[in-house]
Amino acid sequence: MPRRKKSLYEWWMDRINTLTGLNPSPNKIFNVISKTIPKAFDYLYSRGPWTGIKLSILAYYLDVYTIIAKKYFNQICYVDTFAGSGIVKIHEGNESLLLYGSPLLSILVPRQEKKFDRYVFIELDYLKSAILRKAIDALAEWGIVDSTKVTIITGDMNYVDYSYLLRNCRHSLVFVDPEGTEPKWSTINKLLDLNIDLLFNFMTSGIRRIWGNWRNGRFSSVNALDEFYGDDSWKKASNDEDLLNIYIDKLRSKRDIVIPIKVMGSHAFYYHILLAVRRTSRGNPWLSPIIKSLKPRIERTDSTVFNKLIEVFRGRMKPLTF
Ligand SMILES: C[S@@+](CC[C@H](N)C(=O)[O-])C[C@H]1O[C@@H](n2cnc3c(N)ncnc32)[C@H](O)[C@@H]1O
Questions:
Q1: What is the pLDDT of residue 242?
Q2: What's the 3-state SS for 47-100?
Q3: Whose CA is nearest to atom 18 of ligand 1?
């Protein structure tokens, strides 16, 4: 009998279980951190529920990537170029929920025999980087990660020598998760010369805002867009779709396959997660669940739906009501 297709609700419950069912819980790790950094709660990366959607996409790809890459490469690495504090605060109204952020998901999500061999986390903010270090130390004490496999760099991701850093890695997954236009094209271009898959958070509505300012004669952030695109090709855009497609074309000059996934935030806020990979001789069969299952479901979800799902998970609302 053919397998029944999961409803959007059932599919999301699987995703939320992955994010919230990790052991130890983020609250446990956070309690350890706050003993040495009492104000840590104020420094956690704090955003609305759409952050959970982004983390779900990452968690999904971490599983798919590690299963496949481990088959073909004996040394696989994960690079988080905008690592944050390791634990994120999802807030809605006066309430907040702690979730693991991207660097700790890379340690906790892959299956036991499929773990990365090395981790590189880059974070510009000194305090966030210190919280991340404490979180890694706590996970190491729990026997969950060997801290000698983790390199934390406190600095600007645009000034890292990636080819030296990844010299022993046969293949790597690089996650680029900025708040705006921080990653310069020159940096991304160098990264794409290496043997990597790239998962890139393109902050579409933020980039459109800067471009809109330029169209209205306000030139203050023009340099940032020039560096982000590597040239002034963005000036040819007529709307946000063009701004996205110009960047996708740049990625396509280095990778045959670029998959954009649109994530709806609140109001006019939205972004795209771009997955850029090389075509393989077998035709990348593992991308099929990304294209057929992950992408359409994410694109049907907005942060209101995600927020309701979190409520259901916390037991405050019955699934039927949803
Ligand atoms: C969107 S947050 C990252 C969230 C994180 N990926 C997660 O899922 O938990 C962006 C982070 O990048 C840091 N950052 C900003 N500019 C940076 C740069 N040039 N290099 C490295 N980190 C930077 C910020 O301090 C912030 O913590």
A1: 97
A2: ECCHHHHHHHHHHHHHHHHHHHHHHHCCCEEEEECCCCCCEEEEEECCEEEEEE
A3: 156
The maximal CA–CA distance of the chain, rounded, in angstroms, is 62
* Ligand 1 centroid – CA 202 distance (Å): 13
Sign, Cα dihedral of 133, 138, 144, 147: positive
- Cβ of 249 below 6 Å from ligand 1: no
* 286: confidence class by pLDDT, cuts 50, 70, 90: confident
Beta-ladder partners of 98: 89
Q: Does ligand 1 lie within 6 Å of residue 26's CB atom?
A: no
Calculate how far, in angstroms, residue 121's C-alpha sits from the geometric centre of ligand 1.
Answer: 10
319 pLDDT tier (thresholds 50, 70, 90): low
Ligand 1 within 6 A of 102 CB? yes
How many other CB atoms sit within 10 Å of the CB of residue 127? Answer: 15
Whole-number Å distance between alpha carbons of 162 and 112: 27
Tokens found for residue 294: 């992950």
Q: Indicate the average pLDDT of the chain.
A: 92
